[in-house]
Each structure stands twice: as C-alpha cells, then as structure tokens.
Structures
1.
Amino acid sequence: MIEGLHHIGVAVRSLTEALPQWTAGLGLRLEGVEEVPTERVRVAILWAGTTRIELLEPTSPESPIAKFLEKRGPGVHHLALKCGDTAAAIRVLVDAGAPLLDQAPRRGAHDTQVAFIHPKYLGGVLAELVQDPPEAH
Ligand code: ZN
C-alpha cells in the first residue's frame, strides 16, 4: 500500500527567511513555490537528491500550519507517504481502526490526492498519504 517516502513537510514562519539556508546553505534545488488555498499555505518544494522536502508557510492565522507554529514552533510537521491509491489506503486504514483526519482524498499541492492520519495513531507523527497525478513520474 505504501510505496515510499513522498516528502517531508517542515513548518516555517516565513519562506523568505527560511529558504536561503536550504538553498544557498545546504545547496538543495528549489523546484518552485505553490500556494494551496485549501490548506492556507504556501509550499516551497525542495529536492535533496531524489527526496522532496516541502517548506510550509501559513497564509492565514487560521491555517493548520499557523496553529502548529503557535503551539510547537518551526520544525518538522509531517511525513508524507506515497501510495498508488489514496482512497484504497483510507479504506484499509479505517478497517484497521486508524483515526483519519480526512475520510476521503482531497486535493493537495501539485495536483496530488492526499489524506492525513491523526498523529495519535503513529506516536505523535502526523502522516500524509499522497497519490501523485497520473501524468507524474
Ligand atoms: Zn505534505
């Protein structure tokens, strides 16, 4: 069901302030910045070799990322796991008794289908299931 790590999500207060350390400092490649209005975040997509890292900046105080920053400060926010079929993965997890934050897949950044698993299921780790769009590699 899980095919690998899709990306690691990192909460930042400001992309402008955070990006230079990841790009000029660490030397990661910035693929681009996308706004995801449904999540009220701006997402900077970085590549560490073949591993994707996403920096998440809130665009509203109501953003889940704004609430996370308020409670826990900047840092690792979630692990995203790649799956071929998010809807099927949700069904398997519901049957296993996993608490899901999304009962159906919804649109994530770059036209993905995503669903989040409550962190209480994985020892405090927020996990995101991600299904890439069909035309993606
Ligand atoms: Zn994510």
2.
Amino acid sequence: MDSGKIFRIGFLGMGTVAQGVWKHLQANREIMRQRLGGEIELAKACVRDISKRRAVEIPESKLTQDPYEIINDPSIDIVCELMGGTGKALELTLAALRAGKVVVSANKAVICSHGAEIFAEARKCGGAYFFEASVAGGIPIIKVLREGLIANRFSLIYGILNGTCNYILTRMERENATYETILKDARRLGYVEADESLDIDGWDAAHKIAILAYLAHGCWIGTDKMLVTGIRGIRLEDMIWARDFNCRVKLIAAIRKLENGALFASVYPALLPLTDVVANVNEVYNAVSLNGDVVGRTVHIGRGAGQDATASAVIADISDALKYLLGAPAQMSVADLAEPRMATLDEVDGDFYLRFEVEDKAGVLATIASVLAKEDISIKLLHQRKHDSSGKAWIVMTTHKTTEGAIKKACQSLSSLPVVSSEPFVIRIFDSQV
Ligand code: NAP
Ligand code: HSE
C-alpha cells in the first residue's frame, strides 16, 4: 500500500519523546516508508524555546513557538501532541481535531482528565485520535485491549505502570540507596515527568489505569474516585523486611471488578509474592497482567518509559494514522457505559503489611493488639525490630484478610496511642486472585 502521497507531520513539543520519534523516523526513512505504507515528512515542531540545544538536529526553519502555525497549516496531516500538561495540551488537541488533523498523543494526563471530551470531539469532527504511547511506554497495550483481547471481559487488570517508580524501587533494593539519589539518574535517562510528583505520588500510574479502565469497562474513572498512594513513604527497611514474607515491594496500579459489579481502581505500593512474574519485573520495565474471561491471564512486559520505547509506540500510532488517512476505519470508539458504581472501602478486602515505631516496654503489644481486635483485624505474622538504643522498636506485621475501611480506622487509632511514635505505614499485600 503506497499512495504516492507525502504525509506531513507536525509536532507540538520536541522534548525527550518527540526527539526519539524524529530520530527514528529520520534514521529509518526507507524501511519506514515500506512499513508505514506511505512517505512521511517531518514538517514542523513547536517548542517553548527555539534556541535550546537539542540532541537531534532540526533546521531552524522547521521550529516555531506558535502551535497554530502547525494546526492551521492545511498541508499538515498528522499532529503529534508530545508537549505534556493538561491546559494548553487540551486546547491544542481540540483545535487540531477541529482543523481536521489526525492527532497522536502520549499524554496520559490530558486523556485521563479530558478523554471523554477529546474522543467526543474526534467523533464529531470525523477525525481520529491515537494514544498508544500514553500507557506502558513501548508495550502495545492499547492495541492488546482494543484488538487482540476484544472477546474478553476483565475482572482484574493490574501491573507496574510507572517506569520511574519501578526504576527507583529496583535500585533502592539492589543498592541500598535512597530514592533521591536514584531519582537523579531517572531524570537523566528521560523517564521522569516534568512535574515529578506525578511519578512519585502515583498520579501518573493513576492516569494510565484510568485509560485501561476506560478501554476495559467503557467508563471514565477520575483520580478522585481512586485510592492513590505513591512511593514517598517507602523505606529501605520495607524492601528488606518484605523478603521475610517472600515478597517484593512494587507500585501496583489496578482496576478490579468486584463480584457485586462495583469497580475499584487503585495505585499503591504493594507486597507481591516473588512467585508472581510481575514481582520480577524490574528497572524501567512495566508489566500489565490482564485476566480476561475468555483468554485467561496474559502478562505483557516491556520498557515503560524513556525516549526509544515511547518513540516506538508513537511511531505505531503514526502508522495507524497513515492507514486511517488512506481509508481504514479509526479504532477509537469504546461503548461508553453509564457512570460506574465504585466500590466503598468497606467492600474491598485483602491482607496488609503495617510498620510503625513504638516504645519498647511492657504492655505495648497488648495495647496494639486490642486496637486491632476492636476493628476485627487478626494478626498473621509479627516481627519486632530493635533499631537503636533509643528505647524504641519497629513493629512490622501482616494481617489476615480485612477491609480497607477497618485498616484505615485501626491506623487512625494506632497513631493516637502515646506508645506509638510514628504514623503507621501501610503496604497492601496484593491479591491477584480473581
Ligand atoms: P519533555 O521532554 O518535557 O518535552 C516537552 C516538549 O514540549 C519540549 O520540547 C517543550 O519545549 C515543549 N513544550 C512544553 N510546553 C509547551 C508550550 N506551552 N508551548 C510550546 N512548547 C511546549 O517531555 P517528554 O518526556 O518528551 O514527554 C512528552 C509527553 O509524553 C508527556 O505527555 C509525557 O507524559 C509523555 N510520555 C513521556 C514518556 C517519557 O518516557 N519521557 C513516556 C511516555 C509518555 P522546549 O523544548 O522548548 O522546552
Ligand atoms: N514518567 C513516566 C514513567 C513516563 O516513569 O512511567 C512514561 O509514561
């Protein structure tokens, strides 16, 4: 399939990801022409600062600070929104769709908060919006859900969706290093969002699980309806003590459909048994485990962040954009369902790991046990770790199955006890049973 037409691409943003796309499309021009089914031309890129030094060489004539030079240029067919953020990115995405462009995006933040509006606009304009790079970097998970596993209903989707956090947790565990040290390397490698809190506090993974939830369940779940906790509170000791329970700490994003039909979306550091393949996915790699009612379980692993992995996904979308421009139907609609019922914290249960510091004296354990008993929480394993000569000790315990609601109340009561000198820190023990 080669129409002879040259398709012109405009870039909104020329940072880490866009430079990867530019580099690979330039370097593999001929093979890309054959595989994409058409000739492409890198027409123009909009940036904030034209004078900034970039790793790829771009003639100054192809750079602009005015995004509308791209959007209003009738000779540009495809607009790649690779600038990030939500305000300006939304405005420009909608404007590009209205101008009849096919839009390709890696921007999970704008899709999570404005996906319904963007897809509605694309439908209204008879255009197309492709977003493979928005979830799990180089893993083609959007295609997997929309095409390969179309026959399935999903009771549980979970995995590692933030490369930066996985990179930090892996290296903390291997090198006994603090997360601040490793964050610097993650920045240098281009994994980290411009706003680092998106990664560290779990919001980036929440944006991605919202997109997977939309594809799997046909409804948009805002981050305000999720349980979201990042990795800031994790200590090196947690990684070491997790081993005593044959587990590893990972930041897990999940969308679970309970038996009563309610949905529960979450992002939190979790203990995963070492026997789970996802627990053994390290560094910048992501993993997505899908439990489909027809296929059973499938697990998809690959680089979740970084220039080349993400460029691979963007180029796949450019290929779909070309096919669409050459007459193939757009793969964009998912049956939009009514507002989902989200599970309450009392409907969601599991086992928990708790860690807190106490005064090391008689009666303390009895007091703690009575607080837990009041919430009907049963202790499974308990370790006391003496960490210095201050007369204090760490209590590390796991519980039998209890609810999120009960743990929340127990932690509030524990933190108000005079003998407990640190906020109880909770790590969920992830239940991958469906
Ligand atoms: P980046 O390196 O920070 O690049 C952003 C680019 O956008 C820069 O070229 C910047 O211009 C330009 N820009 C930002 N605001 C602008 C504005 N208001 N007007 C004009 N230009 C503007 O970001 P990135 O890492 O490539 O990420 C781009 C998108 O991909 C984000 O949505 C991100 O979440 C997503 N993503 C990133 C990765 C990754 O591994 N990095 C992976 C998957 C998805 P200057 O160069 O002049 O500053
Ligand atoms: N900051 C993101 C991550 C980039 O670390 O996963 C990929 O979406």
